[in-house]
Amino acid sequence: MSEYILNVGKEGKDRLELMSQFLNPYSRQFLLGTGIQSGMRVLEIGCGAGAMTTWLAQQVGQSGHITALDSSAEQLQVTRERMQRSGLNNVDYVCHNINEFQPTEADFDLIYSRFVLIHLPDVKQTLQHYKKLLGKMGLIAVEEPIVSDIFTYPMSDLWETAVSGYKQLSERKGLNPDLGESLYAIVLDAGLKLKSAGYVQAVMEKDTAVDYLNKAFAELAETWVDNKILTAAEYTAAVNRINSNSYADIRFSTFHRVAQIAATR
Known about the structure:
The chain is an alpha/beta fold and about 260 residues long. It has one domain (about 10-265): Vaccinia Virus protein VP39 (Rossmann fold, 3-Layer(aba) Sandwich). It has helices at about 10-35, 50-60, 75-85, 125-130, 155-170, 180-190, 205-225, 230-240, and strands spanning about 40-45, 65-70, 90-95, 110-115, 135-145, 150-155, 195-200, 205, 250-255, 255-265. It has a seven-stranded mixed beta sheet with strand order 3-2-1-4-5-10-7, sandwiched between helices. α3 (about 75-85) links the parallel β2 (about 65-70) and β3.
């Protein structure tokens, strides 16, 4: 798995927790629609701060099991600590690149990932590897964003700056920041059978949007400046505007539109 553009582990925990607050209701509804149930063996790829891991573990119960996989040991540690606080013990943790993950028993009932494929250069190949890890009646459920598809009312150039900067970093790594646009077709090209497909877009209240922007800008600052996407002065000016009255007229902001695709072997 290629390096994440934004922070992971404890350094990215606050942003990931905030993102989970407005995305998790959509993700849970999506997974409930796929038929997640007690007793399932689930592989969660890219476990983030562990919010969805906790929910998945609750859904499958003690008769089920979650394998939380991430290429970042720091990210897994955050998830592990969260699970310890929850008292749930039906989760194990694997630090591995997904494309090289070869478990002894590759027969998962559900493979779930959110905002993972966007970090990988060959999405079709990775989905084909997901397929190999499924049981005969298994299901793949993936969520990926269209980074460009975000707006505020009235429109804010601060969001446009953040989106543009992220996209430039992503494209320089050979990745597709708008993967959600083509995910449907790639899933079919990978030889999977479509079960469901749709899009969702979360709305953030102004205070939440300002908080998220601040966290994202802080994580990206050094990388933006090092890659000459923004100068240090431009970055400072943008952060000052985020926290000033220049954001006062914004009524609401959306997060990136997200593709939700479920498929079988």
